[in-house]
Amino acid sequence: MKTFCGRANPTTGALDWVEESEEYDYHQEIARSCYADMLHDKDRNEKYYQGIRAAVSRVKARGERVVVLDIGTGTGLLSMMAVTAGADYCYAIEVFKPMAQAATCIVERNGFSDKIKVINKHSTEVTVGPDGDMQERANILVTELFDTELIGEGALPSYEHAHMHLVQADCEAVPHRATVYAQLVESDMLWKWSQLQPIEVDGNKLLPPPAVVKCAGAPSVCDIQLSQVPPESFTPLGPICTMFRVDFSKPVSSAAQSYTAQFKAQTSGRAQVVLSWWDIDMDPDGNIVCTMAPSWNYSDPHTYPWRDHWMQSVYFLPAEENVSEGEELNLIISHDDYSLWYSLTHSQNINMAPFRPCCTCQAHLVWTRPRFGELNDEQRTESYVNALRSILKPDSVCLSVSDGSLLPIFAYLLGSKKVRRPFFFRVKRFTNYDLIFFTLQISVLMGEPYFSTSLLPWHSLFFWYCRTAVAQLLHPSATILPRAATLYIIAVEFQDLWRIRAACGTCEGFDVSPMDEMIQRSLDYRESLEAEPHPLWEYPCRALTKPRPVLTFDFTQCVPEQPVNSDGTVAFTGRGHCHGVALWMEYQLTEDITVSMGLTKPVREEGACEWNPHRKQGVFFFRSVREMSGDGRENLSYNLTFEPHTGDIKMNFSLSNDTL
């Protein structure tokens, strides 16, 4: 049996449906999962273990037999904790078949098969009774059904069903409750990720269309590592508010609800953004707390427990509102069964019904949050405007190849007033039918390039394929912008991101190596030979080598017929653990103007890197980590091949020592 999977095709700019074996989808899910990240989350694991021990003790103190229901068991870790804590029996539910098989293997290896039953079903399909999946209802409910938004993985419907059908009325729950917090802030940096801002081009002020300005935007959460957003980039307009709590030991409703936090504005400003996170109390008294608060909310930021499976949330208000210091405000949070959204009212509008934001301008459905930020980047805009100014002539005929780009408007505003307008055409695929629309030879072919289907840095080479497709329409002296692209690499030591690919071995004393083996098998299926996209501005790292250009793509020429290969070595100049290689593109707009999709500043002496916040970079993780001395005798060896027929780049990296 075969399965169809979507893969970005750099040669067409489209998302192609490729036929893969039936195992591919499973391997993809496992290889790119965050299971390892959760197992390395020591704070999470310890708090769960403490909460489970306390819950088992409370049930035993009542003289009852301890029966545990573990929904979303994953590796079976929480079930093994429960049995070790003294539970008599545990039902471990896992809907993902490969994960259920791994849990069964882990349970057997740790000697708990007689007390833990792994059930490969969705919890809403589990039956209770003599012939059911469970022989009896549980009196302890243990779950890990949460995402960054708390309820985005269907926690509320799952809890609702469990209380109705799978657990006793007076059950204990671990976690016992969750609390959602929020803070209203003004932040130009974050607001630029939601609304298109006015742009200055040669004295002309470009205003976003009224439909975009009035649009409430998309209600979807923007989940990021809020610890990497500097506190100086936003101004709190109110206190951190407790928005609502959910008690998981009692019946839970998935029905839509709203909650209001009232407060006085701490300072005057523009209410734009809501920063949000949650805590979970593992016990009824709230003595065992696992918090998702960002590091700058800790009294000692160094004690912040890094995790990537749970981050923090940024929500954008439907429209920015001016607030005055001391003004009474009502911050409203609403939710359905899977998502949250925020709204703000003033004291005089306290009875105004909250509404769910809905994009009416289409821009929020087409552009991602980082794409909004990129279009609003003034320094980036200046680079493109300066480049266009240097190449445009009064009689220029321009063709723009990019998704949702403003370059055509910039070019028009920079053109001679004697020309009514340059000729623009949005190109996706080229056919003979398309070409008849071009009655003039193109003198300027321009692109950012940006394409919504691009996942990895080199996927934007679709621009090169478009340039090749319209070669016959180009004037002999046509200018191509950008004129070239260069792929760079740098070896790095990650502060924390390495955890998502690191083997765990044991976790809280339990052998979970079958999980490591399963992930590695899935990585070996294909993924270990590929880079994966990550927004590195969220994940601090240190450079262990100098940046090295490895492949250059000359857009003034057509795509070559034969593969382009590059190999060599880069000396390690920094001391540290080499976790992998970061890859990014830099575009040479003109002879003297270059824009980087990766490093935005030279690497500092200690190796600190600053990354472009609007594009994802590629990361190639090494299977094993090696400590480098940085004395120049150790090298990063690389071999990269650009395949013109697929538009992909095959890569191989290894670590070597000149003294070996």
Globally, the shape reads globular
Identify the quaternary structure here. Answer: single chain
Report the C-alpha radius of gyration, rounded. Answer: 28 Å
Q: Main β-sheet, in a few words?
A: 7 strands, antiparallel
Average predicted confidence as pLDDT:
90
Q: How many DSSP-defined strands?
A: 34
* Coarse structural class: alpha+beta
Helix content: 10-25%
Distance between the termini: 48 Å
- Low-pLDDT segments, ≥5 res: 416-437
Q: Total number of helical segments?
A: 15
What are the defining features of this structure?
15 helices, alpha+beta, 34 strands, 20% helix, seven-stranded antiparallel β-sheet, single chain, 660 residues, globular
Please give a structural write-up:
The chain is an alpha+beta fold and 660 residues long. The strands form 9 sheets. Strands 8, 11, 12, 13, 15, 16 and 17 form a 7-stranded antiparallel sheet that branches. Mean pLDDT is 90; it is low at 416-437. Residues 176-345, 484-656 form the Protein arginine N-methyltransferase domain. This is Protein arginine N-methyltransferase. InterPro entries: Arg_MeTrfase, MeTrfase_PRMT7, PRMT_dom, SAM-dependent_MTases_sf. Belongs to the class I-like SAM-binding methyltransferase superfamily. Protein arginine N-methyltransferase family. PRMT7 subfamily.
Write a brief caption for the model.
Keywords: Chromatin regulator, Cytoplasm, Differentiation, Methyltransferase, Nucleus, Repeat, S-adenosyl-L-methionine, Transcription, Transcription regulation, Transferase. The protein has 660 residues and is α+β, with helices and mostly antiparallel strands.
